[in-house]
Amino acid sequence: MSTFTRRATLSLLGATLATPYLVRSARAGTAINVGAMRLASHAPTYIAFERGYFTEAGLDVNFDYFEAAQPMAVAIASGDTGYAMTAISGGLISLAEKGVAKVIGGALAEEKGISGQKILASKAAYDAGLTDPSKLDGKTFGMTQAGSSFHYMGSKIAAAEGVEVHFKPLQKTGAVIGAIKSGQIDAWSIVPNIAATLADAGAVKIIGEVADYIPNYQVTTVFTSTRNAEQEDAQTKAFLQALARGAADYNAALVDQTTDAADKDAIVKLVASYVYPDRPIEDASASILSGAMRINSGMALNKASVVDQLEWFKSGGLVKDGITYETLVDDHYVDVLS
Predict the structure, then answer these.
(1) How would you classify residue 22: left for phi > 0, otherwise alpha for psi between -120 and 50, otherwise beta?
(2) How many CB atoms lie within 10 A of CB 124?
(3) I need a surface site. Which of 3, 141, 189, 336 has the fewest CB within 10 A?
(4) Which residues does the UniProt record annotate as the domain SsuA/THI5-like (predicted)?
(5) Is 108 in a helix, a strand, or coil?
(6) CA 189 – CA 199 distance, rounded (Å)
(7) Could you tell me the pTM of the whole model?
């Protein structure tokens, strides 16, 4: 396998976890960089770090922070970042086709009965009549980049409603937030904690649920370099199993609510310290609680959803038509959901 620098990678863009928590890294204290975003969907990473699960797995973790999925994919492929968890993007698929990146597990998922991602309208667009997704025809829909999860969601929503939307790439999630608050875009879709924060402030209106248009959507995945997937088996298992422990704590406290109040409060404070480091805990708590979506147990992967996403990318000419599920995914590390 060739070694790719970040510069070279940028140029390219023109066994299961059924028995949890038992595998340790072959080299105690192995240093790895883990990609992260300041979103509640990354909570398992922060919980695994703060509760010592990575350390117990023999991993010395340092966080690399990103504001969009595609730059994270570039960092993974170049080897600057070891593992990451975010949405499937056109950039990630193209890097997988080049043999330098692999999806190795699942993470955030839409699940019936649990509050999921919301479809938003700017206040100006809502006041002008955009009160539900059927009225999106001709409207501008925000996204980070072409081939991002926002592009995928907006396209699926528009197709289901039989309307045409105009996508506006804004590169970073923060820029999309600013654009919808100021009325520069008409609509967007985003995780519930961000949606609730914006709606509570009166900046947007929630006009629909993503799950009504994309049921069982595998929103985010865990991925790494092909080298790690193929040559660092013990390290990769150790990382995934530590991450799965963080996910289990998160689901128990905030999704299934099977823990006591003290543990729930501890998880909320832990997550808030990363996601909303500049906000008082009293303000951050409501957003963390409202944003609690399911993280797949054991980092299991929903194959049907990944295939659907891949076919959408291919149908739009965003990636090469010959790319297969096997090109993108190495699913031998986790359980596969049908």
Answers:
(1) alpha
(2) 14
(3) 3
(4) 41-249
(5) strand
(6) 12
(7) 0.85
**Other beta carbons within 10 Å of 127:** 12
Q: What is the SS3 assignment for 236? A: helix
Burial class of residue 326, CB neighbours in 10 A (0-12, 13-18, 19+): exposed
By C-alpha distance, which of 72, 67, 84, 80 is closest to 13?
A: 72
What radius of gyration, in Å, describes the C-alpha atoms of the chain?
19
Is-contact 33 82, C-beta < 8 A?
yes
- Where exactly are the structural domains of the chain? 6-111+218-337, 118-212
Residues in contact with 113: Cβ distance below 8 Å, sequence separation at least 6, in sequence order: none
Q: State which CATH number among 3.90.950.10, 3.40.1080.10, 3.40.190.10, 1.20.1250.20 fits the domain covering 6-111+218-337.
A: 3.40.190.10
What does the alpha-carbon distance between residue 28 and residue 56 come to, in Å, rounded to a whole number?
9
At 109, is the secondary structure helix, strand, or coil?
strand
In this structure, the chain runs to a length of: 338
**CA separation for the pair 124, 338 (Å, rounded):** 41
Per-residue pLDDT of the chain (338 residues; tens, 9 = 90+): 344 444 444 444 443 343 333 343 444 579 999 999 988 889 999 999 999 999 999 999 999 999 877 788 889 988 999 999 988 988 889 999 999 999 999 999 999 888 899 999 999 999 999 999 999 999 999 999 898 999 999 999 999 999 999 999 998 889 999 999 999 999 999 988 889 889 989 999 999 999 999 999 999 999 999 999 999 999 999 999 999 999 999 999 999 999 999 999 999 999 999 999 998 998 889 888 888 999 999 999 999 999 999 999 999 999 999 999 999 999 999 999 97
Report residue 27 as tokens.
């080299």
Reference 156, options 325, 14, 308, 317; nearest CA is 308
